[in-house]
Amino acid sequence: MPSMRKIMLSSQDTAIIPNEWYNVVPDLPRQLPPPVDRDENKSSIQLLNQILPKAILKQEFTFQKYTRIPEEVQEIYAQIGRPTPLFRAHGLEKALDYHGKILVKYEGATITGSHKINTAIPQAFYARDEGSSGVVTETGAGQWGTATTVAASLAGITSKVFMVRVSFNQKPLRKQIMELYGGEIVPSPSPETEFGRRVLSQNPDHPGTLGIAISEAVEYALEHGLKYMLGSVFNSVLTHQSVIGLESEKQLEILGETPDVLIGCVGGGSNFGGFVFPLMKKFKDARIYASTASEVPKFSKGEYKYDYVDTAKILPSIKMYTLGSDYVPEKIYAGGLRYHGAAPSISMLVNSGRINSSDMPEDKVIDALKVFARSQGIVAAPESGHAIATAIEYARENREQKETILVNVSGHGLLDMSIFQR
Ligand SMILES: *Cc1c(COP(=O)(O)O)cnc(C)c1O
User: Fold this and answer.
1) Least C-beta-crowded within 10 Å: which of 41, 195, 225, 244?
2) Residue ranges of domains in the chain, CATH in brackets
3) 172-180 vs 143-155: helix axis angle to the nearest 10?
4) Which residues on adjacent β-strands are paired with residue 264?
5) CA-angle at 400, arms to 395 and 405, nearest 5°
6) For 333-376, what is each residue's pLDDT tens digit?
7) What's the average model confidence in pLDDT over 60-85?
8) Neighbours of 350 (CB within 10 A)
9) Index of the ligand 1 atom closest to the CA of residue 270
10) pTM recorded for the entire structure
11) Are strands 134-139 and 184-188 parallel, antiparallel or unpaired?
12) For residue 411, with 0-12 CB atoms within 10 Å meaning exposed, 13-18 middle and 19 or more buried, which class applies?
């Protein structure tokens, strides 16, 4: 055990941070359909081999259940706020007159205010260990970009973030945070890549899309021998996020609680999978709800089929619930939930009926955020507001059941206050 952690944390806290990540793939009821190249003329899988650190590739395709978390990453987890709190939400129970218990796992307590840092850190450290001088990625609203720049800075390597131009113009504070951490932020489409130049030649005022930003980041990484960072959807990312569920398991044991219901929100699925999978293994009878935006109803209205990971069709095609990689969702405040698909492992379990889905409209989400802020004092992220809204609805409909509901609140919403101006 590194001595630094003994200085910073009590022995109980130290014991809560896991030293291995959990990979759900070998525990799924069926074999996971592999990623494939849809276009015979291009090898998107070979592309992944070139732009991802070898350690990440190995974790992406492994059938091993547990992977040791490098000691240095465990150290950094402690510094960025792990273990995050798991507490009983007495205030919310009272506000709802709920007769059972509501427990909250709170990922907003990390230094970047969301769970995204949990995977950014190992990805940046593996890139550095394999001799890379820097990492590249894309970002929409900026949460993933922020986690990337922090992680790169802690690993002592450079970071470059292609940020969708509209967000770049609308959210100058996000850009400033990323620059504070030493990142280089470029509005996308940009003149720095061939793809960006092509888009700009057709429309010099193009507002940008996540798909274009991904294309630019991948091209830039290839061109400059840098590593590309994966924000969600991929198995390796869900594996890193398993720290959420593994910590929760130990915290529940300390509290002597057994959850009957598990709830989380799903964009690409990384906070949900990371939270639910380790717990599902232990609490086999728990009912599970994946909360999505009614405006992006991937599970209730989408199809379970092979589709592209990204709008630009650069990355491979995977089997998942999808609204179509060309789907343009309404502009909701929960930018992180606008993704057209969901991780293959989660999709398989929704398809088999093990995981239920719950669609939440934005007005209900805003109400839920207000109830949560006033009863618990926490301003949750709009994305997390969906999970809270599902929990509130469940509690209201099952008031007398005396069940224990555990909800994962993936981030804080202090940089998303504009949602309350409506
Ligand atoms: C990005 C984000 C999400 C959605 O991403 P997942 O990969 O589905 O977890 C949810 N909540 C917050 C706070 C986010 O920043």
Assistant:
1) 41
2) 4-19+81-114+239-421 (3.40.50.1100), 22-68+116-235 (3.40.50.1100)
3) 10
4) 290
5) 40
6) 888 898 999 999 999 999 999 999 999 999 999 999 999 999 99
7) 96
8) 24
9) 7
10) 0.95
11) unpaired
12) buried
Tell me the CA–centroid distance for residue 266 and ligand 1, in Å: 7
Q: pLDDT digit string (tens) for 109-143?
A: 999 999 999 999 999 999 999 999 999 999 988 99
Closest of 361, 382, 332, 388 to residue 113, by C-alpha: 382
CA separation, residue 11 to residues 17, 82, 111, 393 (Å) = 10, 13, 21, 38
User: Which of 46, 174, 50 lies closest to 161 in space, CA to CA?
Assistant: 174
Tokens for 79, please give them.
Answer: 């510094």
Given ligand 1 and candidates 106, 114, 119, which is best to mutate, with the most ligand atoms within 8 Å of its CB? Answer: 114
d(CA 86, CA 337): 23
Q: Give the whole-angstrom CA distance, residue 303 versus residue 140.
A: 25
Phi and psi at 291, nearest 5°, equal -95, 125
